[in-house]
Specification:
The structure is a single chain. With 354 residues, the protein is of the alpha+beta class. Helix content is 36%, strand content 32%. Helix 1 runs antiparallel to helix 2 and helix 1 runs parallel beside helix 4. The protein is elongated, with a radius of gyration of 31 Å. The termini are far apart.
């Protein structure tokens, strides 16, 4: 049996051809992930879905009926001429035909029960200094199965089973494929992602301000749960803390912060819950830091909404207001002293005349 052209082959070719600029002005790391999910219902019915992601931005997907690429961003297709996209479409169709045949053949030889799902994730993370970290994983029925060690160009077992050893042996003996994967990881991913980053710079730099509210729940008379709900922010990274009397509350059983969850409008949300004694006499506030705020900090005290407006003004503007207030006070004092001096002088003249 011929060695299978693993799903990573088409995924990495997509990486090669989807992302072919400079991105030195984007001072952070970016990750491309290429996903393939093939559901084998039986030997004659297989449904395959594919998706390409740059961070959390969907670049394109694979039509499961026609095996053609559907572009989700208007700036993806212009990265390459039409003829190149036509070549990719043909390569995907040929690959999926062979992939389906070889997986079915291997499943029958190893008596793998149907239905089952094969998954592949491949991609790379690029840093602003042009270094990179590459990865490739193969899954079976939602479990880690194999992964590719880029350092020594070898396939490593994630689980030791008869099926995983069988697939590992096929891939490991196919040295030409492993060499191709290594080249694509070490060179192509870095070189060709620049074009995509340049075309998609505006989308990648999109920022949405977080909206935060604090409210309370009382599950029992002796316990108060303070809830800080933060939503509508983009990009995903965010810092949410609780302050007790102005000091940060350390991690512990009383503090529970949810995972960052997506909203329908392509923004994110989370909740941070702090359990307190209703009569402990302390003051509490939720503090939010996010890239869209710049140097500003959202500070939402429990039970005092006025401070929110002050906190949202930002440190720079607060400093300017402080300087303005001090200047106004100094001018006022100087004028008052002048007025007092003039009054004393006038009174002295009047007393002499009298």
């Amino acid at each position: 049996m011929q060695p299978p052209r693993c799903c990573l082959f088409v995924l990495l070719l997509l990486c090669l051809l989807l992302v072919s600029g400079t991105w030195a002005d984007l001072e952070e790391s970016f990750t491309i992930r290429l996903l393939q999910t093939s559901s084998f219902q039986n030997t004659t019915f297989v449904e395959t879905e594919g998706l390409g992601l740059l961070e959390d931005i969907e670049l394109g997907s694979l039509d499961k009926h026609t095996w053609t690429i559907r572009f989700h961003q208007p700036w993806v297709r212009p990265a390459l001429p039409r003829s190149d996209w036509d070549t990719i479409q043909n390569m995907i169709k040929i690959y999926l035909q062979k992939f389906t045949h070889l997986i079915n053949e291997g499943a029958m030889q190893r008596a793998v029960p149907y239905p089952f799902v094969a998954q592949c994730v491949a991609g790379c993370e690029l840093f602003h200094n042009m270094t990179s970290r590459s990865f490739a994983y193969v899954g079976y029925n939602g479990q880690d199965f194999l992964y590719f060690n880029v350092g020594n160009a070898s396939w490593i077992l994630s689980q030791d089973t008869s099926l995983s050893r069988y697939v590992q042996a096929i891939l490991q003996n196919y040295t030409a494929f492993s060499e191709l994967v290594e080249v694509l990881f070490n060179d192509t991913c870095v070189d060709d992602m620049e074009m995509l980053l340049r075309y998609g710079k505006t989308v990648l730099q999109r920022q949405e301000l977080p909206v935060a509210t604090v409210f309370a729940r009382t599950p029992s008379p002796d316990q108060l749960l303070l809830v800080c709900h933060v939503t509508g922010f983009y990009p995903r990274p965010i810092s949410v803390d609780w302050l007790r009397d102005g000091q940060e509350v350390p991690p512990g059983p009383a503090l529970n912060t949810s995972a960052i969850l997506p909203n329908a409008d392509l923004t994110y949300q989370l909740r941070s819950i702090l359990a307190v004694d209703p009569h402990d006499g302390h003051s509490y506030a939720c503090r939010v830091r996010h890239r869209s705020l710049g140097t500003r900090i959202l500070l939402i005290p429990w039970g005092n909404s006025e401070v929110v407006l002050i906190a949202e003004i930002g440190a720079g503007l607060l400093a300017a207001m402080a300087v303005a207030a001090i200047t106004t006070f100094c001018v006022w004092r100087r004028r008052k002293h002048q007025q007092m001096g003039e009054t004393e002088s006038r009174n002295s003249i009047l007393s002499k005349e009298a």
